[in-house]
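Bug #77: duplicate submission created two jobs. Keeping one. Sequence:
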Amino acid sequence: MGQGLDNVHRIYLEGIAGGNAREAVHKYTGHRYTQHSTGVGDGAEGFLAFFEPFVDRNPKRDIEIVRSFEDGRWVFCNAYQSLNDGAAKWVTMDMFYTDADGLILEHWDTIAPYVAQTKSGEDMAGGSKDVDLGADTEANKAVVLEYTKQVRQEADLSKLNTFVALDLVQHAPNIEAGRDGLKAWLGSDGAGTYEMMFQLIGQGDFVVTYGKRHSLGKDIAVFDLYRLAGGVIVEHWMNEEDISPRDAWGNSGKF
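Kept job's structure:
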């Protein structure tokens, strides 16, 4: 585990789950901390203004980092949160940019309610966890890049079988199982249009994109996490959050 990935784990598990927000934010962030979680202000003080009350109103915080990886100075993590004995359950996907020493400089996220019964029958936060470090990272990133361009942005569903396995394991709550389930969703009004890919990072057999889609009159920030094998996508998670009006942002916004 690189220092950046280790620091991300520590700010999550010590600062948020462990309730030591003040110590953690000063220890694991760098000369700046630019925030894109729209309810949180920039800098250490913005972090503390949100998370110290969060800790107070949620005395029971069961937080698990389900899967995570790093790509140079970029770090990704996917977490499951159960608060106050399950009174609220959330799935988060977070992306961080770090400095040369691994200290956190910038953060993006989406926070979605945990859905117990998905359309595919797969757990929203379940599935493969461990990164296959022997897999070809750059080749897998190239597959996801072309899939995002040709299928998501250009909406060419005839290309789906080039990029996606027939027996795709689907974890997105609102998409049916398999390649056929994904195709049906991509062709629906609910999928809308994929307008912008902001970032793509990966390690081994895992690749994640962060971008924006527009559906049913709403702008949506979305992480798509993929696991690849044999040059195709074999597993998919999706975590998304509606983008609030500009006057509700506590910082410069989701991107």
